[in-house]
């Protein structure tokens, strides 16, 4: 508008000073045209210089970005369910009564509460989405009448707590059983039965065996605790696995165990060293070979192999020819105190911690533990471990030692 006013004043000046009406009109038209043509350009430049405000995201887009199940409820019905909620509860929950969407008695009672009263302490839901799943439900009421229902998966936390409780209960039981036996026999020996040399000798042997059982259990508990404390410290000493297997074979042979003569080794002497803790790796292999000797059938071979895997890792396998393990038990074999046959394991002197110790040792060495078993044929436990250094071309050639029966 200011440019047009200037144009009018300019035209009047031409008319007054020069007394030329046509020139005044031409000046007015040119000035007004220039003002009108220039105005949009100025507005475009100013608009370009002004930063644009980003659009406000939609609420359903925001909820989709949340990885945990979230429901937006209005007047008791689900208006929005993010992807995680649809996967857990089903896509049909949108538009449904929220009490039917989350089929849980305690949840229904909390969800039916008036605004302001539902947002109390978090509620634990068991069985939503699966029998073993546990969820923490949190409810928030917004000022505009909406209700946000947030489900937080607590299954892993409860599983860890259950393992801790089971561990304490099992350890207490395993220690109490031999202790009760020892105390009972001591009480019996203090009576007249202690006067009979034969009975006294039998009772003393039982006491000695039970005391050794307690000793093994305590040693395994201490060992497991020490390994767990060191699990984040990567071993940095080179360990020759072929030499270690030979050493373990000699140690088992010196024990006088009749099953030691059934050990068969098949090692590739060219396998490079691994970064490891020699004492812990020896303990792990002792446990694996000892299990194969105990649970394999008498007179059948216990085969220990070492070779370089195609993936470029050292692979050790321990194979027995025993009764095998039912497949439903295999995923739980490395749990503390888990036994397929508790009675047989205790009879053979097992503490229930052997494979748990092996698992933690292999994890500390950044390796992998695999267990495969066939009923009636036996079990093979395999350990894979990374090498201490990259392989050179001259060390890739494999020279395998023939199997030697001991």
Sum up the overall morphology in one term.
extended
Task: Look at the structure and name the CATH superfamily of the largest domain.
Answer: Histidine kinase-like ATPase, C-terminal domain
Secondary-structure-based class equals alpha+beta
Q: What is the count of distinct domains? A: 4
Broad CATH class of the largest domain = Alpha Beta
* Content of β-strand: 15-25%
Task: Give the CATH topology of the largest domain.
Answer: Heat Shock Protein 90
Specify the CATH architecture of the largest domain.
2-Layer Sandwich
Main sheet properties: 6 strands, mixed
Instruction: List the total number of helices.
Output: 12
The helix/strand series, from N terminus to C terminus, equals: HHHEEHHHEEEHHEHEEHEEHHEEE
Order of adjacent strands in the largest pleated sheet: 11-12-10-9-7-13
Instruction: Tell me how many strands there are.
Output: 13
Distance between the termini: 109 Å
Give the helix proportion (percent range): 40-55%
Low-confidence stretches: 14-19, 21-26, 39-48, 391-406
Rg calculated over all Cα atoms: 40 Å
């Amino acid at each position: 508008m200011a440019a047009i006013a200037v144009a009018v004043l300019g035209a009047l000046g031409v008319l007054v000073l020069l007394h030329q009406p046509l020139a005044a009109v031409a000046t007015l038209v040119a000035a007004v045209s220039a003002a009108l043509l220039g105005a949009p350009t100025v507005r475009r430049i100013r608009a370009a210089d002004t930063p644009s405000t980003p659009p406000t995201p939609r609420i359903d887009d925001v909820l989709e970005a949340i990885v945990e199940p979230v429901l937006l409820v209005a007047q008791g019905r689900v208006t929005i369910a993010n992807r995680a909620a649809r996967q857990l509860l089903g896509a049909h929950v949108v538009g449904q009564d929220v009490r039917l969407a989350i089929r849980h008695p305690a949840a229904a009672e909390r969800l039916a509460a008036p605004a302001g009263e539902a947002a109390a302490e978090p509620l634990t839901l068991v069985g939503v989405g699966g029998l073993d799943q546990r969820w923490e439900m949190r409810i928030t009421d917004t000022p505009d009448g909406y209700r946000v229902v947030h489900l937080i998966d607590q299954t892993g936390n409860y599983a860890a707590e259950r393992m801790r409780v089971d561990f304490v209960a099992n350890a207490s039981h395993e220690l109490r059983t031999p202790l009760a036996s020892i105390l009972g026999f001591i009480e019996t020996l203090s009576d007249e039965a202690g006067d009979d040399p034969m009975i006294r000798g039998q009772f003393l042997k039982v006491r000695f065996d039970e005391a050794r059982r307690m000793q093994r259990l305590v040693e395994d508990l201490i060992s497991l605790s020490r390994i767990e404390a060191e699990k984040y410290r990567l071993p940095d000493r080179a360990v020759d696995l072929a030499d270690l297997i030979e050493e373990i074979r000699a140690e088992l042979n010196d024990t006088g165990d009749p099953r030691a003569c059934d050990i068969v080794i098949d090692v590739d002497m060219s396998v490079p060293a691994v970064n490891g803790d020699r004492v812990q790796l020896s303990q792990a292999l002792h446990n694996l070979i000892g299990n194969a000797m105990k649970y394999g059938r008498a007179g059948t071979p216990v085969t220990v192999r070492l070779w370089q895997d195609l993936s470029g890792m050292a692979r050790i396998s321990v194979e027995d020819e025993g009764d095998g393990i039912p497949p439903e038990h295999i995923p739980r074999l490395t749990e503390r105190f888990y036994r397929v046959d508790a009675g047989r394991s205790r009879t053979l002197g097992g503490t229930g911690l052997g494979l748990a110790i092996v698992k933690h040792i292999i994890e500390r060495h950044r390796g992998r533990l695999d267990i495969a078993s066939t009923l009636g044929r036996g079990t093979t436990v395999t350990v894979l471990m990374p090498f201490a250094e990259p392989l050179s071309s001259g060390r890739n050639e494999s020279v395998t030692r023939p199997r030697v029966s001991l």
